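Worked example

This section walks through a single chain of length 178. The input is the sequence exactly as stored; nothing has been trimmed or padded.
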Amino acid sequence: VAYWKELTRIFEWSETHVWSCFFICWGAQAALHHFYGIEKYDLPEKKFGVFNHKRIKKDSILLRGFDEEFMVPVSRHTEVRKEEVEAVSDLDVLSESDESGLYIVRDKSTRRLYVFNHSEYEADSLKKEYDRDVAKNVPIEVPKNYYPDDDPTQTPVLCWRAHSNLLYNNWLNYYVYQ
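Given that input, the structure is written out below as tokens.
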């Protein structure tokens, strides 16, 4: 990464100037590497679609109001491994998916959150990625659990908005303002 030095300066600056950090996808992987030396690993193929996730920490205020299971968009070529996260006593896995791995990790000693999947995605975000790659002749599978009957000629179904809103509202309320 050509801008790693600049990024690490931002990470360091955030330790004394920012009350809470919410790192997403590659940013979460980069921050975990910077703060804890946790590596990211290439996946054999892009993890791409909308996957079922579970609450691991039932009492987490970040997940207050979440259903026991919920859907989250995923689009990434790399991952961090759960066993490496769990080896760090300051880190806590809040949510994960059997199929797509870690989703949310919390830093117990700070207000840093590491979110590996894409709650922020709009209804058509995965469609745009898929259409872009198809147009470029990039090998890409249809995003799993996204189109009705996995048919990309159909309109995708938005099934993650409520949990996405809860996630960001809980973060702002409990990690930033309170």
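What to look for: The first strand starts at residue 21 and ends at 24.
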